[in-house]
Design goal:
- The structure holds 2 protein chains of 2 kinds.
- Chain A has 12 helices and 11 strands.
- In chain A, helix 5 (148-163) packs across helix 9.
- In chain A, a hairpin with a 4-residue loop joins strand 10 and strand 11 (374-381).
- Chain A is α/β, with parallel strands linked by helices.
- In chain A, the strands form 3 sheets. Chain A has a 5-stranded mixed β-sheet, with helices on both faces. Chain A has a 4-stranded mixed β-sheet with strand order 8-11-10-9, with helices on both faces.
- Chain A is globular and about 55 Å long.
- By secondary structure, chain B is mainly beta.
- Chain B has 1 helix and 8 strands, in the order αββββββββ.
- Chain B has one helix spanning 21-28; strands at 33-37, 43-44, 59-63, 67-76, 88-95, 99-105, 118-127, 130-137.
- Chain B has a 5-stranded mixed β-barrel with strand order 4-5-6-8-7.
- In chain B, strand 5 (88-95) and strand 6 form a beta hairpin.
- The radius of gyration of chain B is 16 Å and the shape is globular.
- The chains are: A alpha/beta, B mainly beta.
């Protein structure tokens, strides 16, 4: 059977400047910079784009004088899969996915304000993102013996990837040893400060078109080998229980497992075929959880998998090679949901600043996590499926 | 170690809907309420329009024993806003009637927190007429807050369901 995305290619990925604060920018202006940047990198005029996706897509359309075009408000891996489906079904020929965050959060007395809405059953007990994800981590530690040291090893590994990446907000801030993470102040037990994502500003974008068109463009095309989304409900409203279930057999503690299995099935590949994992890292533990959910190790074995050095740049499965949300950037609302895809494309195009995995042909990208009741998975390849 | 205390005034108060008002009314009376499905018997919380298990809309409110076990927890040292004073503990509680809920853990020391710690709902006012459910170790819930720490072993989890 012909692969559903055989005729689809990602032709460029682009990060804008990332910083703790981008003076003079707001979320729209940095999204426009991402859109213009990816267009230039791809060698595709914005006049030839007939679909725009992202949380501010319609603003982008107007501000750049585009249109009429197809739009959609989703972001992240969801938007990339949407774009691939639009092209595969001939609804669109060339789709821009762009997002950005800047200037939105100025209340520095508050923590993670974008996930601090007044939801009825979480606001009064004092929950926010770190606490939601900590509840999942603690359950795993109690059930399987996962340790704070193992969490710290994840954080140090990814932060060290950012330390050597000149494009990372925390470039040069390391190197970090696990003990540095354990010595940082406690935020929400078991997470120390350095187990938690940073807060920064920036934009990013990817551009997709037909494989035929991609063959005429300057950069090596990257293909969508598979992907799917796992959702159990809205984030930060209901208990992020390990055991939360719907009608399926995947509990929230393994959310992403069904999506990964679907992605692998679509691609004809398995975990052993993945060269690099661009995993979403809102908190250190989420990496351990995703490695188990996707089948890179058994459930409960993620801590030991990390202890064995597998996720280091020199290991069997390098993870989150630009520094992720722990060090590269975390733009706030939606933009960081696309950043793992950008890095996966860069890996397969051999275009990475910092850690480049030699000979990478297959990249698994993700976003979300069990603390938010969802996980999105995308499998990218250098070879046309 | 510091004993975990209820929040001080000034934290966010809920904005109930018609669906959730019976729950908060119960809390204000010092009672924990949940929905029970008349069709399949499932316990439902937080409040829903239809049963998550069988999709029946025949949900009726019932009073919980308020007993439960700690499923997981986190001690928070960096609060979401200055209204919260740290440390405080957040838990997911396996409530005896068969549902889970988020609540703060109080009247215990930090190093007492553990998986399957037997707990009991207690209620404290948070302003604007709202009372928030908390959970305290079951032995601690029966003694006054002012008494010295009780060093007797907690009851075994076996008899608490």
């Amino acid at each position: 059977m012909t692969h559903p995305f055989r005729d689809v290619a990602i032709v460029a990925a682009h990060n804008t400047e990332q910083a703790k604060a981008l003076s003079g920018h707001d979320s729209i202006s940095i999204t426009l910079a991402a859109a213009i940047g990816v267009s230039a990198a791809a060698g595709v005029d914005l006049e030839d784009v007939d679909g725009v996706l992202g949380s501010n897509a319609n603003h982008v359309v107007y501000a750049l004088g585009m249109g009429p075009v197809h739009t959609g408000a989703g972001g992240g891996i969801s938007a990339v899969l949407h774009a691939a489906a639009l092209i595969a079904s001939r609804v669109c020929t060339t789709v821009l996915v762009a997002d950005g965050g800047a200037g939105a959060y100025t209340d520095h007395a508050s923590t993670a304000p974008w996930t601090r809405p007044g939801y009825e059953f979480v606001a009064s007990p004092g929950l926010y993102t770190a606490v939601e994800f900590a509840l999942v981590a603690r359950r795993h530690m109690e059930l399987f013996g996962t340790t704070e040291q193992q969490l710290a090893t994840v954080a140090a590994t990814i932060r060290n990837n950012g330390h050597v990446n000149p494009e990372a907000v925390f470039f040069g801030r390391g190197p970090y040893a696990p003990d540095d993470v354990l010595r940082s102040r406690m935020v929400a037990d078991p997470f120390h400060l350095l187990d938690c994502s940073i807060n920064a500003e920036g934009g990013c974008a990817v551009l997709l078109t037909t494989a035929d068109r991609a063959a005429q463009l300057p950069l090596a095309p990257v293909y969508v080998l598979g992907g799917a989304l796992d959702y159990l409900g809205p984030a930060y409203r209901h208990p992020p229980s390990w055991d939360l279930r719907g009608s399926g057999d995947v509990p929230n503690g393994l959310v992403g497992r069904r999506a990964a299995q679907r992605a692998f099935t679509m691609s004809g590949l398995g975990p052993g075929d993945v060269d690099v994992c661009e995993l979403y890292d809102p908190f250190s533990f989420e990496i351990i959880r995703q490695l188990e959910a996707y089948g890179f190790c058994d459930v409960g074995e993620g801590g030991r998998f990390v202890d064995d050095g597998n996720i280091a740049p020199t290991g069997t499965l390098p993870v989150t090679t630009d520094g992720g949300t722990l060090s590269f950037s975390h733009g706030g609302g939606v933009v960081q949901m696309l950043q793992r895809v950008v890095r996966g494309v860069q890996q397969l195009q051999r275009a990475c600043s910092g850690v480049q995995v030699a000979g990478a042909e297959v990249a698994l990208c993700s976003n979300g996590g069990a603390g938010a009741l969802f996980n999105e998975v995308l499998l990218l390849g250098a070879q046309r499926p | 170690m510091s004993v975990l205390r209820p929040h001080r005034p000034g934290i966010p108060v809920p904005r109930p809907t018609a669906l959730t008002q019976p729950y908060w009314d119960g809390c204000a009376r010092g009672e924990l309420w949940f929905q029970s499905c008349e069709a399949c018997g499932a316990a439902v919380f937080d409040p829903q329009h239809v049963c998550r298990t069988c999709r029946s809309d025949r949900l009726t409110w019932r009073r919980s024993s308020g007993h439960g076990l700690v499923s997981t927890w986190s001690v928070v040292w960096r609060p979401p806003s200055p209204a919260f004073h740290t440390p405080y503990a957040v838990g997911i509680i396996d409530v005896a009637e068969g549902y889970q809920m988020i609540a703060n853990l109080v009247d215990c020391e930090l190093d007492e927190l553990r998986l399957e710690l037997p707990v009991k709902a207690v209620f404290h006012p948070i302003g604007e007429g709202f009372w928030l459910p908390y959970f305290a170790p079951r032995r601690a819930a029966e003694r006054p807050l002012a008494s010295p720490p009780d060093r007797t072993p907690a009851p075994t989890p076996g008899g608490n369901r």
